[in-house]
Write a structure and sequence with these properties.
heterotrimer; A mainly alpha (281); B alpha/beta (336); C mainly alpha (289); B: 336 residues; alpha/beta; seven-stranded mixed β-sheet; 50% helix; C: mainly alpha; 15 helices
C-alpha cells in the first residue's frame, strides 16, 4: 500500500477509505461499465466505427454537447448568484426558496419534461407569450437547453452553498481591514475560494446534462439530424434489439465525458494549488 | 469487511424477494404494451372467474405495460412473463430470434396469426375537419401538419408508416418510388416526432399541435372519449392497414413455472365470445363475426391490407424501412 | 447557519470593513431579484404548474389519486429503495471524500473522475449495464438463474440502478468542503493523541456536517425521483415493481393527468419533507455548538 502514497500523512484511514472506495467503485461503476465495453466490442472495429461516426450520430453528439455546454454555462452563472443570495442576503421566504432548489432532483425527469413542455409549448403559459416574438422554445435546441438547465440547476447551487457558509465573512473583513475595496475583496479573496467548488458544480451539471434522456424527449421534438440527442439514438438502437450498437454510442459518450471530467479535474487541481500558493505567500 | 457487508446486502436482497415466491395461488404475468391496460384489467377479472369455476384454482394475473419493444426486451432479459400480448409480431418474433424463448412457428399456434383482435390506422382530426383530410394522399399536401411518433422508437408508428407506404403501392400506377415520395412528403409535414404513441396523442390533444394525428383506431376512439368528444373527429381512410397485435405464451417461462395449461387457456379465452366482447368494448375489432356484428356501429367497414400481403412479413418490412440505412433513415438523410 | 452568520456579524467592525465585506442595499436587491427571477422561470413556475394540475379537480381527487392501492404500493417501494441505497451512498461518500481530500496518492485524479462518472452516464445506460450483467443473457445471468436469485426486474435491480445514479452525490458534496477546510485541525488532533475515530467524530464531522446533510438530502431526493435507470430494470409489474416515478408515467399514459400530477406533487412533498428535517437537524446541531 505504502508506495501508492506520494506523501506520508499523519492522518489515519488511508487503507480503509481506499478499500471502501474501490470496492464501491469496482462493483457499481467499473464492473457494469466493463460489461458495456465487452458488449460494444462484440461489434468488431469496422462496425463499431461505422456506428459511432454515422452522420446522424455526429449530429446528435454536436447537439448533445452544445446544449449541455449552454445549460452548464447558464447554471454556472445563475447558480453562483443563487447560492450567494441564499447564503448572504436575508429576504422573506428564504427558507422555502432554499428548500425548493432540490426540486429538479426529486421530480421524476419525465414529469419535468412534461411540465416544461406544458409551460414552453406554443400554447403554454410562457410559450404563448414568446411565440409572437418569433421565439420558439419547445421542440427546438432552445427547449433542450431549458430542460437541461432545469435538471442541472441544483448542482452549482448545492456545491457552492456549504463553501460560502463555511467561508464566513472573516476573510473579506480581513481583506477590508487591509484596505481592499469590495470588488477587490470579492475578486481576490472570495472568488478564488469558491472556484474549486464552482468548477465542481459546473462539471456535474454538464455531465448530468450530457446523459439526460427522460425530460428531454418530451421537449426536444426528436427530429433526426436536428433535435435528436445522443441518448435518444441509444434508445433507437435498443428498439431494434441492437444492444451492441446502443452500447457503442454509449461508450463514445462515456469516453467524451470522462475526458471532460479529467480536464476539469486538472483545471481544478491547478486552481486549488494556485489559491493555496497565494494564501501561503 | 467490505465483502461481508456486501454478502449481508445480498442476503437482504434475497429476503426482499420472499413475498414473490411464497404465493399460494397460481400467478400469471402478462407483459403487454401501453394501450391494453384497461382491456386486460377486464379480461383478467373475467378469466380468473371462469378459471376458478372450472378448476377451483385461484388465479392472480399480474400486468406489466410499456412500449412494445421495451417490453419484449425485458422478457428477453429475464422478466418472467407467462404470456406476452404486444403491439406487433416483430416484437414477439424477437422473443424467438434474440431470446430463444419461443419456437419459430409461434404465430401458427393460435388462430388468426395469433392476433385475437385487430385494429387499424385512422386519422384523428380537429372538429369539422378544417383541412379536409380524407385519405392518405391528403397527408402529404403542403400546409398540413401531421403528428406521428418516431417509427424508430415506437411500434405503433411503424404501422402508420407502413400503412401510408402500402396505400401508395396499392394505388393505380403505384410503385416503390411513388410510395417513397408520398411517405417523404408526409414526414416533411411532421413537426414533432414523439418517442411513443401516447406521447403523440398528448402532443396533438394537449398541446394543440398539428392538423391530423395518425393513430390506432382503438387509441383514437379512447382519446376522443377521454379527452374531448366535441373537439375531435375520426376519419377512417377508404384503404388502410390491418393492425394485428400478437399474443404468445412464453414456452421457457411456463415450462419452468408449470403454468402452461393455464397460460394456454388464458390466451384461448381471448378468442371466446366473452373475450371478444371485452376486446370490442375496449375498441379493438373482434375477429368473431357474431361479436363483430353486435359492435358494427362502432367499427365502420373499410378495406384493409396486411403486413404479410404487402411487405412479406415484419422481418422484411423492418429491415427495408426501419433498419440502419432503411427508407426512414434515407428520408431524413436526404432532408438535409 | 443563520446563527453563525449572525454571530459573525455581531463582531465589531470598522466602517471600511463593513463596506468591503457587505454589499450595499441596491446591489443586494438587484442580485436577489436576478436570482429569484431565474429560479422563478426555471423552478417555481414548473412547480406551480405541477400543483395546479394536481389540484385541478379539487383536494378530494388529489387524496384519491395518492391513496389508491397502486400508488401506495409504489410509495412503499420508493421509500424502501431510498432507505436501502442512501446509507450505502453515504458510507461511500464519506470514505471517498476522505481519501481524495486528505491523501496525495497515485491515481487520485482518475479516481476522482470515476466518482463523477455515474453522473455522465445516461440513465438509460445506467439501467442497461445491470441488464447486461444480471439479465437472462447477461454475464452472470445463467449463474443467478441456477440459484433462483432474481436481480433484474425485482427490488435488488432497482436498488442497484439507484445506487449507480446516486453514488457521487455525497462524495461530491464533501470533497470541496474538506479541501477548503484544510487538514490542520485534524493533524493537530492527531498530534494531541486523539484516536482516528475521535478525530473524525470531534473534528472532521462537525466541520463537514452541512455538506454531509446536503449530500444525503440530494442523494435521497434523486433516489426517490430516479426514472430512466429504474424504468429499464423494473419490469413495470403493477403493484409490485413500480416506483412512484414509474407510476406517474403510467397514469400520464392512461390520460389521467390530474392523478399523474398528484403523485408527482407527492414526490415534491417528500423532497420538501427531507429539507424540513434538514432544517430541524441543523438547528439542533447549531444549538449544541
Amino acid at each position: 500500500m505504502r508506495p501508492l502514497l506520494r506523501r506520508e500523512s499523519v492522518l489515519p484511514g488511508f487503507s480503509l477509505s481506499l478499500g471502501v472506495t474501490s470496492a464501491f467503485l469496482g462493483l457499481l461503476v467499473l464492473l457494469p461499465l466493463a460489461a458495456l465495453a465487452v458488449k460494444a466490442a462484440s461489434l468488431g472495429p469496422a462496425a463499431f466505427w461505422a456506428t459511432v461516426t454515422d452522420a446522424r450520430a455526429l449530429a446528435a453528439y454536436r447537439l448533445s454537447f452544445g446544449a449541455s455546454l449552454a445549460a452548464a454555462a447558464l447554471n454556472g452563472l445563475f447558480g453562483l448568484l443563487v447560492a450567494w443570495v441564499l447564503v448572504r442576503y436575508p429576504f422573506p421566504g428564504k427558507r422555502l426558496v432554499d428548500a425548493l432548489v432540490d426540486l429538479p432532483f426529486a421530480l421524476p425527469t419525465a414529469v419535468a419534461g412534461i411540465t416544461l413542455t406544458t409551460l414552453y409549448g406554443p400554447n403554454g403559459w410562457i410559450g404563448r407569450h414568446l411565440e409572437p416574438l418569433g421565439l420558439k422554445v419547445a421542440f427546438t435546441e432552445l427547449g433542450i437547453t431549458v430542460a437541461l438547465t432545469f435538471i442541472g440547476l441544483p448542482f452549482v447551487v448545492r456545491t457552492l452553498q456549504p463553501v460560502i457558509e463555511e467561508m464566513g465573512t472573516d476573510a473579506e473583513e480581513a481583506a477590508a481591514s487591509l484596505g481592499a475595496g469590495r470588488v477587490q475583496a470579492l475578486w481576490r479573496v472570495v472568488l478564488p475560494t469558491l472556484l474549486p467548488a464552482w468548477l465542481t458544480g459546473v462539471t456535474l451539471a454538464l455531465s448530468r446534462a450530457l446523459g439526460e434522456y427522460g425530460s428531454v424527449v418530451f421537449i426536444a421534438g426528436n427530429m433526426p439530424m436536428q433535435t435528436e440527442i445522443a441518448p435518444l439514438l441509444i434508445m433507437t438502437r435498443l428498439e431494434q434489439y441492437d444492444y451492441a450498437g446502443a452500447t457503442a454510442i454509449a461508450l463514445v459518450m462515456l469516453f467524451a465525458s470522462l475526458l471532460l471530467l479529467l480536464a476539469i479535474g486538472t483545471l481544478q487541481a491547478w486552481s486549488v494549488r494556485r489559491s493555496l500558493g497565494e494564501a501561503a505567500s | 469487511m467490505t465483502t461481508t457487508r456486501f454478502r449481508r446486502l445480498l442476503a437482504g436482497f434475497a429476503l426482499g424477494l420472499c413475498p414473490l415466491a411464497g404465493a399460494q395461488t397460481t400467478t400469471l404475468l402478462n407483459v403487454s404494451y401501453d394501450p391494453t391496460r384497461e382491456l386486460y384489467q377486464e379480461v383478467n377479472a373475467a378469466f380468473a372467474r371462469e378459471w376458478k369455476q372450472k378448476t377451483g384454482q385461484s388465479l392472480t394475473i399480474q400486468q406489466s405495460h410499456g412500449g412494445s419493444g421495451k417490453q419484449a426486451r425485458a422478457v428477453i432479459d429475464g422478466l418472467e412473463a407467462d404470456v406476452v400480448t404486444l403491439a406487433l409480431a416483430y416484437d414477439v418474433d424477437a422473443l424467438h430470434k434474440v431470446g430463444g424463448l419461443i419456437p419459430a412457428g409461434w404465430q401458427q399456434r393460435l388462430p388468426h396469426n395469433s392476433a385475437p383482435y385487430t385494429s387499424t390506422i385512422v386519422f384523428l382530426v380537429r372538429k369539422g375537419n378544417p383541412k379536409g383530410i380524407r385519405d392518405w394522399a391528403d397527408l402529404g399536401k403542403p400546409g398540413v401538419q401531421v403528428i406521428t411518433p418516431n417509427p424508430k422508437t415506437s411500434g405503433g408508428a411503424r404501422w402508420n408508416y407502413l400503412a401510408a407506404w402500402g396505400w401508395a403501392l396499392r394505388q393505380p400506377g403505384g410503385s416503390e418510388a411513388k410510395a417513397r415520395e408520398l411517405v417523404t412528403r408526409i414526414f416533411r409535414n411532421v413537426p414533432v416526432l414523439d418517442s411513443g404513441a401516447r406521447g403523440s396523442t398528448n402532443t396533438f390533444v394537449q398541446r394543440g399541435i398539428g392538423d391530423v394525428l395518425l393513430a390506432w383506431e382503438n387509441e383514437a376512439l379512447l382519446a376522443v372519449r377521454e379527452l374531448g368528444p366535441d373537439q375531435f373527429e375520426i376519419v377512417l381512410p377508404p384503404l388502410t392497414i390491418l393492425a394485428e397485435p400478437s399474443v404468445a405464451l412464453v414456452d421457457q417461462v411456463v415450462d419452468a413455472k408449470g403454468t402452461r395449461a393455464v397460460a394456454q387457456a388464458y390466451l384461448e379465452f381471448l378468442y371466446t365470445p366473452a373475450g371478444q366482447a371485452i376486446a370490442a368494448r375496449h375498441y379493438f375489432r373482434p375477429r368473431q363475426a357474431a361479436v363483430a356484428a353486435k359492435f358494427a356501429a362502432q367499427f365502420p367497414k373499410t378495406a384493409t391490407f396486411t403486413i404479410d400481403e404487402v411487405f412479406g412479413g415484419w422481418t422484411k418490412a423492418q429491415a427495408a424501412h426501419f433498419g440502419d440505412g432503411g427508407t426512414f433513415d434515407q428520408i431524413y438523410a436526404a432532408g438535409r | 447557519m443563520s446563527a453563525i452568520v449572525a454571530a459573525r456579524r455581531a463582531q465589531p467592525l470598522t466602517r471600511a470593513a463593513l463596506s468591503a465585506s457587505e454589499d450595499s442595499r441596491p446591489v443586494r436587491l438587484a442580485l436577489t431579484a436576478a436570482a429569484l427571477g431565474f429560479l422563478g422561470l426555471f423552478l417555481f413556475l414548473p412547480l406551480v404548474a405541477v400543483f395546479t394540475e394536481a389540484l385541478s379537480k379539487g383536494g378530494e381527487a388529489w387524496v384519491a389519486a395518492v391513496s389508491e392501492p397502486e400508488a401506495r404500493a409504489a410509495l412503499w417501494l420508493t421509500l424502501k429503495v431510498a432507505a436501502l441505497s442512501v446509507p450505502l451512498v453515504t458510507v461511500f461518500g464519506v470514505a471517498a471524500a476522505w481519501l481524495i481530500a486528505r491523501f496525495d496518492f497515485r491515481g487520485r485524479r482518475l479516481l476522482l473522475a470515476l466518482i463523477d462518472l455515474p453522473f455522465a452516464v445516461s440513465p438509460v445506460i445506467a439501467g442497461l449495464v445491470f441488464v447486461l450483467l444480471f439479465g437472462r443473457q447477461g454475464l452472470f445471468g445463467p449463474a443467478l438463474a441456477e440459484h433462483g436469485v432474481k436481480v433484474i426486474f425485482a427490488v435488488p435491480g432497482i436498488v442497484l440502478a439507484t445506487l449507480f445514479v446516486t453514488l457521487p452525490f455525497v462524495a461530491r458534496e464533501l470533497i470541496p468542503l474538506l479541501e477548503a477546510e484544510g487538514r490542520d485541525e485534524e493533524e493537530a488532533a492527531r498530534t494531541l493523541g486523539a484516536s482516528g475515530f475521535q478525530m473524525f467524530w470531534r473534528v472532521t464531522l462537525p466541520n463537514i456536517r452541512f455538506g454531509l446533510l446536503y449530500g444525503v438530502i440530494l442523494a435521497n431526493a434523486r433516489a426517490m425521483g430516479e426514472f430512466g435507470a429504474v424504468s429499464v430494470v423494473s419490469g413495470h409489474i403493477r403493484g409490485l415493481t413500480n416506483t412512484l416515478p414509474l407510476h406517474v408515467e403510467i397514469l400520464y399514459n392512461e390520460y389521467r393527468f390530474q392523478a399523474a400530477f398528484a403523485v408527482a406533487s407527492l414526490l415534491a412533498f417528500l423532497a420538501i419533507g427531507t429539507l424540513v428535517a434538514k432544517a430541524l437537524l441543523e438547528r439542533r446541531i447549531g444549538g449544541s455548538r
